[in-house]
Amino acid sequence: MAILSWSMPLSYISFLIHLILVISWTSLSSSFSISSVKLSVSRVSSPLTTSRCPYTATKQFIGRQAERISFLAASIHGIPTSASYFTNQLKYATMFMSMEKSDNKNLFKRNFILSATSTTVPPESKVDSSPEKNGKKKKKQRSTDNLEVMVLGLSHHNAGVEVREKLAIPEADWNTAASGLTEYDSIAEAAVLSTCNRFELYLAGSNQYEAMKDAIDFLYKRAGGALDQETLRKNLFMLSGEDAIWHLLRVSAGLDSLVVGEGQILAQVKRAFERGEEPESGQSGKVVARMLNTAVSAGKRVRSETGISKGAVSISSAAVEFTAMKAPMDCKIKDLSDANICIIGAGKMARLLLVHLQTQDVKEVTIVNRSPDRVEELRTEFPDLKINLLLMDKMWDAIREADVVYPSTAATTTIIDPEPLAECMKGRVKQGGVQFVDISVPRNVHPGCSEIQKVFSYNVDDLKAVVERNTAKRKREMVEAENILKEELSKFRLWQQSLGAIPTIAKLQEKAESLRLEELQKASKKLANLSPKDLEAVERLSKGIVAKLLHGPMNHLRQQKEGDATRVAIEQVKEAFQLIEE
Predict the structure, then answer these.
(1) Domain extents for the chain?
(2) What would you report as the CA-atom Rg of the chain, rounded to the nearest whole angstrom?
(3) Closest to 358 (Cα-Cα) out of 379, 330, 337
(4) What does DSSP assign to residue 359?
(5) Are 245 and 485 in contact (CB under 8 A)?
(6) What is the phi/psi pair of residue 149, to 5°?
(7) Is there a catalytic annotation at residue 196?
């Protein structure tokens, strides 16, 4: 630079300045052309790479050139205006960049306001949820505002075990059956409960008569010819509306059980609720799921606030109590503690049997099971009880030596049939008979076994003597329990009535949101100078005001206790807010 002479033209120096500005602006423009969101400086020369912001990077670049130009200006003696000329050029470039930065900031604000007020979903954000593309079968989506609940099925009150076992469904298949029910157009929601004492379908549909007709058709097909239409209809019970809800509440509370107050049914109703709520296969929907959940809550309240569950309150306990009453006569023994007891199976029912057998001073039990693992767990759980293990191939040997046999397997067909049992009894040396108390559904013991000499066969339907005695003890608790259930019934019906107002509430919210966005759009120009943080505060404020204004009318719609009152409230809100019917 020092060798530059007086004769160097000023236009050449000006050219260098403009060249620098062109390079700077080109770098700035190229960085913005890549993306408006993702700022990149990859096309800018190496001096700009010290900053990720294009404005800052370009200013750094010009700053470095300013030092060189200042040095150049100082070297050109005799041109007093040169230094100020170069300085003004640099100031102009800096001011130009600041203006561009401000314009882009305002553009960002305008885009923020538009995005806040727009209700259109960008194409790239839309999710295709079709079953074919996602590989998942969607639940049937239906309006819940006019759905009525129904219950139909079989129970120990109106159908014998020989009928119930033909429709029994393992828990693993409950949702499969529910899916089959919702294939009918009349059935919007469904859940299944199948236990040893009952088989029940919980349904919701807009036409209860069509829904029940289709449900009966489903049961008839499921029976596969084992039950004719006449037998099925004769044994079925069908309830709808409040009667259906009341029935389920009594079931969950244990008031409808064979053994009043038994706790196992509450766990089973809870499982029906959980199965129905499974995301992939559950079919309970909004109404049936709410009804089941209410029943579970009611069942818990009854057991915690009354004495309904005190004493012998399960099928297993009733079976042990029944045996203690009948075994001395059937088996020619003094009492149950002297009996040779055999349990076939090692599941939940077997465990409960062991619990209650200990209360009868039983010290030794033989368990017949397919594998030893579960029996080992029971031995650990009951250290004071001697548990002998025999595998299933030794079952007839165990029966031959037993006084009392409790079959409690999950087999879907009988495992103890007349012919092999008659052959087994020929080798029996004991004087007394053998008592079978079959607490399984489907039954494990064939009905024909009771015709064999010295064989006394009973099933869950024969436990009524014990049941009646327990029921008499619980009369007072049953009255208290029903008062609790009435409260829960009222709560559910109030919620169900509010469903009729949901479409009106949705329209009210939609109109309010539309007006909010419209007014926000009108004010968008005035809001352009606000920072993004302030714009978010305005957005929250406007939504909060709308929510508070809608709180009153929405509560008014939800809190009507009768259907007629709900319809009147709907008309009032529609007229007041000018909600146009489409």
Answers:
(1) 10-115, 148-308, 315-472, 500-577
(2) 41
(3) 337
(4) T
(5) no
(6) -90, 150
(7) yes
Q: Are the C-beta atoms of 327 and 435 separated by less than 8 Å?
A: yes
120: its two tokens: 């259109």
Of 196, 342, 424, 449, the catalytic one is 196
Distance separating alpha carbons of residues 482 and 464, to the nearest angstrom: 22
Q: CA–CA separation, 279 vs 375, rounded Å?
A: 35
The hierarchical CATH code for the domain 148-308 is: 3.30.460.30
DSSP state, residue 139? P
Band (575; pLDDT cuts 50, 70, 90): confident
- The pLDDT tens digits for 228-284 are 888 998 999 999 999 999 999 999 999 998 778 887 899 999 999 999 999 888 999
Distance CA 56, CA 61 (A): 9
- Say what the pLDDT of residue 103 is: 47
Answer for the pair 485, 250: CB distance below 8 angstroms, yes or no.
yes
Confirm whether pTM is higher than 0.90: no
Average pLDDT, the chain: 78
Q: What is the pLDDT of residues 103-148, one digit of tens each?
A: 454 544 444 444 444 433 333 333 343 444 343 444 555 555 578 9
- CATH classification code of 315-472: 3.40.50.720
d(CA 45, CA 51): 12
Kindly state the percentage of the chain with pLDDT values over 90. Answer: 37
Distance of alpha carbon 212 from alpha carbon 207, whole angstroms: 9
Of the candidates 157, 174, 8, which has an alpha carbon nearest to the alpha carbon of residue 79?
8
Q: Give residue-wise pLDDT tens across range 207-227.
A: 999 999 999 999 999 988 888
Provide the CA 62 distance to its chain's centre, in angstroms: 62
Cα dist. 541→118, 547, 551, 553 in Å? 17, 10, 16, 20
- Going by C-alpha positions, the residue among 253, 270, 314, 309 that lies closest to residue 483 is 253
Element housing 290 (H / E): helix 285-305
Using CA atoms, how far apart are residues 87 and 477, in angstroms rounded to an integer?
A: 98
Q: Count the neighbouring beta carbons within 10 Å of the beta carbon of residue 466.
A: 22
Q: Write out the H or E segment, with its range, that includes residue 364.
A: strand 364-369
Q: Is 472 exposed, middle or buried (0-12, 13-18, 19+ CB in 10 A)?
A: exposed
Chain centroid to CA 199: 23
Question: What value does the mean pLDDT take over residues 42-67?
Answer: 45
Query: How far is the C-alpha of 312 from the C-alpha of 549, rounded, in Å?
Result: 56
Whole-number Cα distances in Å, 413 to 109, 169, 409, 441, 448: 73, 13, 10, 9, 14
d(CA 295, CA 102): 63
- Give the distance from CA 134 to its chain's centroid: 20
